């Protein structure tokens, strides 16, 4: 029986918490900003109703065996308020977020040895605070070390596919290549079907190449033909698919601009690599967010 606290029970956090509950092996506690009656998750394997304990005040947090953080990247500081109590006895803190700076975001709050960065691929959306739709398979990747293998073990017996890799850096950068190009849809407010346009397809590939150049300078390794593969995956996706930065902009919510594109510009500057497409996307989206 592991005591697991999940900070940020939104789309991803809700799906993950619900699957952990189904094992019957864990005591799951949700750390939320507001009271929640329970979780109802529609998954490709059927519906799950879960009633984990819910805390709404970091002052109530007591030590657990594992902490899983699934807030948006820009909410790291708020999420960190929970960690003082939850991780007081040295619990590993898994960061289930997009981007490549999982460690950097939490370095000020948790000793590096406790942090477990997670590449998360879990298409999900919240229809209200307690109802979540998992739109496809949930997949996560962690570094192949003792804590990574401990994280994998939490999900044994669930359909959540968690694997280890000797090279997590390349896995998160590869995901960033896909996510960074999603800004095109957010700028246009058009779903994936837009990528059938030849010019937009070329733009997507150019943005992915910028991300790859910076990723390589950071030590990531990419397979041949990644820009073409990402474009092909977008063209094969359901034409009405809406990525999360597009959904956030459409709903007037804050956006993970820095975690998905700003980071490419910032790190590109450090390495002397120009990233004009990402720079323009960041400038436009930030100006739109300010003018909202
Ligand atoms: N959704 C996807 O399909 C998907 C797929 C892959 C990766 N990701 C990544 O996974 C991460 C989470 O995304 P998401 O879509 O699950 O976001 P989300 O639905 O917005 O959920 C974030 C949750 O964090 C909560 N939260 C924020 N600050 C908090 C705090 N201080 N204490 C406790 N809870 C707090 C929010 O509370 P409120 O309810 O009060 O807002 C919300 O419930 C992001 O990095 C995203 O890019 C998402």
Structural features, described:
The longest helix is centred in the C-terminal third of the chain and has 20 residues. The chain has two domains: 165 residues, 3-Layer(aba) Sandwich (Rossmann fold); 123 residues, N-(1-d-carboxylethyl)-l-norvaline Dehydrogenase, domain 2, CATH 1.10.1040.10. The radius of gyration is 19 Å and the shape is globular. The protein is built from twelve helices and twelve strands. An eight-stranded mixed sheet has the order 5-2-1-6-7-8-11-12. Strands 4-3-10-9 form a four-stranded mixed sheet, with helices on one face. It is α/β, with parallel strands linked by helices and 292 residues long. Bound molecules: NADP nicotinamide-adenine-dinucleotide phosphate. NADP nicotinamide-adenine-dinucleotide phosphate binds next to helix 1, helix 2, strand 8 and strand 9.
